[in-house]
What we know:
A: alpha+beta, Jelly Rolls, four-stranded antiparallel beta sheet, B: Rossmann fold, three-stranded antiparallel beta sheet, 14 helices
Amino acid sequence: MQVWAVARQMISEGIRMKLALVFLMLIALVVLGLPFSVVGDSSLTGAVQSFMSYGLTASAVLLGMLTVFMSRSLSDEFVHRQIYITLTKPIPRWQFILGKWLGITSLNAVFLITIGLTIYGMVFYIKVTHPPIDKVIDEKELANEVLVARHAIRAQLPDFRKPAEEAYERNREQGKYNNVPNFDPEREIADLASKFGARWRLVAPREYRDFTFKNVLCDRSPDHYIQVRYKTDVTNYPPDEILRAMWRIGDPYKDTAVYDIPVRHVVGRYQTIRVPADAVAEDHTLSVRFSNENPFAGEKQYFNIMEFRPGSDVEVLFVVGSFEGNLLRLMTLIMCKLMFLAAVAVFMATMFSFPVACLTSFTVYILAGTRTFLFDSLDFASNDTATMFSSVKEFLVQTITHMFTMIGWVIPDFGRYDAVENLVNGRNVSLVWVLQGIGDLAILKTAIVLGLAMLLFYRREVAEVSV
Amino acid sequence: MIDQRDIPVVQTAGLCKTFKDFWRRPRVEAVKDLNLEIAPGEIFGLLGPNGSGKTTTIKMLLGLLHATRGRISVFGRSPSDVSVKARIGFLPEESYLYRFLVAHETLDYYGRLFRLPARIRRDRADRLLDMVGLRHEAKRPLGEYSKGMARRIGLAQALINDPEFLILDEPTSGLDPIGARQIKDLIRDLGRKGKTILLSSHVLSDVEDVCDRVTILYGGQQQAVGDIDDLLAKRDVTQIKAHDLSEDTVAQIRDLVKRLEAKDILEVSNPRERLEEFFLQIVEEAQAAKIVTSGARAGTELPEFLQQPTARTEDVVGELVTAAKLTRNVEKLAPAPLAPDDQSTRKVLTDLLRSDEQTAPAPTAAPTGPSPSPGPACEPKAGDAGVIDALIDHTERPTKADDED
């Protein structure tokens, strides 16, 4: 009850803070204004995707900033000395800290629910008001590729390690590596495997590639559908920039339905083929073959080598949930981040004055948001074979890396729980993912930071020198 | 088992507080070797000039600062003990309240921190707002309050839990004379109900009016401590008060004193009314005429929940509260003059009568006091008896009236 009393007081303050009002107006401006300014690729799907992507990202960032600013309430308790009265009441100090955090978190929850509902409403507003290219196709595409929660499985590529090892042995026997300085056999095998992989990804005219998907745990009845999503690049752009090819989906050896799908579309953009789910075998595998051949008689196909580049692998998708559920799970993940951030802001406010607390909280926010990028950058800057004392640069890079690794025990990787792209692409934001977010961010890391805040606050002399 | 009444409400032994700088070097020794004991039901004054360590001592009693050395206990426990805080009410030197909350929300918030049920919170908030005269301003954010109004709501929050021990740091600071008087009346009333009160103030008259005992700090050290009557009593001077006396009567008394005691009367004068009382009288007249004001209104009497004797001191204060009848009559609540030793006064006056009977001529002036009652040892002349009885009655009356408050 006492925790809730402090939380209620925090909520009252938050609602009456002009700062909160400004942030909410900014969020409203973004969420309500975007549909009128963002068009995406002119298609209905593009408009909805752009709106959701910008709207959700901007809202999450602004709410993060607001969370940090709301911790001012705690700093103000020290500055205006209300804490002198509050802590003379029978409330344990840890409950006071918990109450402040709960207040900020409750406000965030209310704001986030409001934003979620607004975004949901605006999606349907865009759907109704967006100028159609082909109304039926537009809406079908939106329903099948965006306003849905699909589970995606990537194709299993062949194992290139074995042919790479064989090639390495051949080269070694031929003495190709005899005069290579600092030769590393493992690195050579990895390089060869990479080259085999790159070659496999290239599909010459009249060649084909087979992709196998496992654990396609969808409803296999023919009235349900699966989607094959892919992007094909070409070594040389044809003059008409059109790609013509043939997909065969299904495995006759496993007694599934087989669908031949001729495709004709612009090069270098993601495409989705929709076929009945009875193409999936009983053992929940799916076989897909891509043929670089022109199935359209009378249409000229320019000679070209097609390529499935790394990072844009072929995927099979099937529906596992609704857009509403997906949005709810995404909001939960955003909420987990805000809960952690609120704990950081409260922790900093128990130690520092508001400007310092604000600055340090933002630093944590930025570090959490860019952790992957920072580690990648540091990894890129560091020479794998060099020791820490090889050079000044190496010393600095490795010191910062070690420092970040230590901080990483407490500062989470927000990028790991960034699900906006999933929602925008109609990918399932899985419950497991959300539970991981709750466990990692909302429970473990938040508890660590709040625990530290409580510990420090417990021994702190809250009154100032006044002699 | 230890009786709660045996445990001092506050006890410090060798208490020290040293403030340190960023590098942990001692900078200021705010409190030095303070030994303090406040008994249950006592109204204790903490006096001292600025920087003498009063507020630091209070902050240590509240657990807002930690002692550098020495021991400190409140209700026999550490000041940081939550169960101790449930029994304390605190009014800080300034009103550190949430500017965005209205009065009701403020009291409700603090009531929640004491885990008071909603009904009781509402009831107490209403009664306290009535008491401090802010019922009509209860819907305004505290940020809009004047300093005096903020002090009043600060006092209300300090009483929301019906505390056994009330710590008031400069309670009359920023208050108009009406508010200051109400606070003093309140302190006296609460004292009679068995509450223990620690009053820190620069306004010496406030402390003198209400405190049983005081300690005076200077430079963080205790300079004096004791009963206020003991500390202030002028043993070598006797004061006699009477209704207006004629010059002739005064001359006779002067002669009588000279003859019996071989001493001169130092001063005979008509005391002035205190400005405080005169001011209050004017304001009361204005209030009676219903002149509009946007400030705090006249407060009401002590709310019922604060009138209950403090449980742990009930039998101690039982007699005190038996005849207690709350009233705002400013004349009745006039600060009690220092009570002289009644027996010795009566003896001197009886002696005066006796000697007067033997030597003095009959007075010509008519008695102005109440009708005299016959003394046990003699039958004085009507005029003298009236004067002397009036002197006795008037000497006794304030103490009596004070008890009836």
